[in-house]
Amino acid sequence: MLELALLFFVIAIIAGALGAGGVAGFSMAIAKWLVILFLVLAVVSLLL
Predict the structure, then answer these.
(1) pTM for this prediction
(2) What residues contact residue 1 under an 8 Å CB cut-off, 6+ apart?
(3) 19 phi and psi, to 5 degrees?
(4) Which domain holds residue 12?
(5) What does each of the 48 residues of the chain score in pLDDT, given as a tens digit?
(6) What is the number of domains present in the chain?
(7) Cα–Cα distance between 18 and 6 in angstroms, integer?
(8) CB distance 40 to 2 below 8 Å
């Protein structure tokens, strides 16, 4: 899951550099939610 977040982050950086603001924003939003989901699952895993 963390790999997917990093992939979307890289896509967002490349899209932002090429001037595709919509794609960059969408990719960053997906990456942000994947990182949040990863952190929540990691905390739950540590607690159980």
Answers:
(1) 0.68
(2) 34, 37, 38, 41
(3) 95, 10
(4) 2-47
(5) 678 778 878 888 888 888 877 777 888 888 888 888 888 988 999 998
(6) 1
(7) 18
(8) no
